[in-house]
Write a structure and sequence with these properties.
Blueprint: H1 8-16, E1 23-25, E2 48-55, E3 58-65, H2 76-92, E4 96-100, H3 110-127, E5 133-137, E6 140-142, H4 147-150, E7 154-158, E8 163-165, H5 185-191, E9 197-199, H6 201-214, H7 246-253, E10 259-262, E11 270-277, E12 280-287, E13 290-292, E14 298-301, H8 308-323, E15 328-334, H9 341-344, H10 347-360, E16 365-374, H11 375-380, E17 390-394, E18 398-400, H12 404-411, H13 417-430, H14 434-439, E19 445-447, H15 452-462
Helix pairs in contact: 2-3, 8-10, 12-13
GO molecular function, one term: transferase activity
Protein name: Carboxyl transferase
Keywords: Transferase
Length: about 475
Amino acid sequence: MSNTTQSLAGTRITSLLDANSFVEIGQSVTARNTDFNMTEKKAPSDGVITGYGVIDGNLVYVYSQDVSVLNGTVGEMHAKKITRLYDMAMKTGAPVIGLIDCAGLRLQEATDALEAFGEIYMKQTLASGLIPQITGIFGTCGGGMALVPALTDFTFVEEKKGKLFVNTPNALAGNNISKCDTSAAKFQSEETGLVDGIGTEDEILGKIRELVTYLPSNCEDTDSYMECTDDLNRVCEDIENCTGDTAIALSRIADNGQFFEVKADYGKNVAVGFIRLNGATVGAVANRSESYDAEGNKAWESDGRLSARGARKAAEFVKFCDAFEIPVLTLTNVEGFEATVCSEKMMAKSVGQLVHAFADATVPKVNVIIGKAFGTAYTAMNSKAIGADMVYAWENAEIGMMDADLAAKIMYAGDDAAALNEKAGEYRELQNSVSSAAARGYVDTIISPADTRKYVIGAFEMLFTKREERPSKKHGTV
């Protein structure tokens, strides 16, 4: 690396990559523009360090913006370095990681800078679904630069200095930064669905390193495995007590108890992330009704219904997994749809996107029904009807249109309590029981909760060579 090694941008790269693995590209590039006394301003590397290295032995391409050089602003040559890095990454089939700390568009270069933004967007679009793209935000990422993380697959933001916005908080009608800092990492993580994790700079770099180990290098990489040191037939102890916080349930199923969750602060009633099963990466989607903090205290709870935000989050995650040939596991425990004005605004659209994502995905798909599976919310959660290859259900699961007591009240309105209880029992046995669903072929096998890991591993091994053709078309429109 050049003498920019000592800059913050260079330090971030060396902290991210394996020791002594970084090779810099284009260190002699500098700005061409001479307007507004630009010739008097030194611009080493034009404010961005680009190159390649390895993370745990995996080739990655990295660019890191240097805020000490023209505030890290994007100009013509700055952008060319990034787009050329993308060209190399797409040729060799390796991920691109962008470390953002940027004051935005370089005013001295005006239309050249605008063209530069567009060229970056174009390369990101071409790379989408071909190679994984990851963004880490450590300073300002505003205006047109905010579209860069929006076009990548995963985004992490430093919790104190990281700022992400299209319009600054003070530019929003009726708002100011003291009232609501819409650029803050916490707001972006909880409200936009764009941010996968927040933390200190070291934590963010650590999360990116860990994430890379789960991901294939490109959409054709089918050799992304780790040696499994866990018992494939291990009993999942106490997993039946984890139906509320399914992040814990997923860790019980996973190799060595490891679950890498993304977008944990957004759409909390759905948990999404990556686990390994027999050494292979699997994308996990699970309904969630509660979560616990590091001390074991309940931090959040809901009524077990699917929200619009949760559906949207799950849909985007499933589409990513399908693009990169990552199998998908779902844990279903849902009673219906969230009934709030806020959620209703986007409910049909978001659930439609979730249905389309599951139905359109051709990767191996396994569903485990671990609790209640009621109504079309259940249908949308990777049911047999929309393409699940294997569906398992725990012995105590319930599958049907709605809760038996409510169904009885609707069908036998006006009957006394004793009659309603009797009819509810009949409905529960005839329509909501897991055995009834299995008899109709909607469930393939009824299993004990403790045996979940071995059944799921067996299913994915059986589905390893799955091939599925779809009608010929350019692409869907949902």
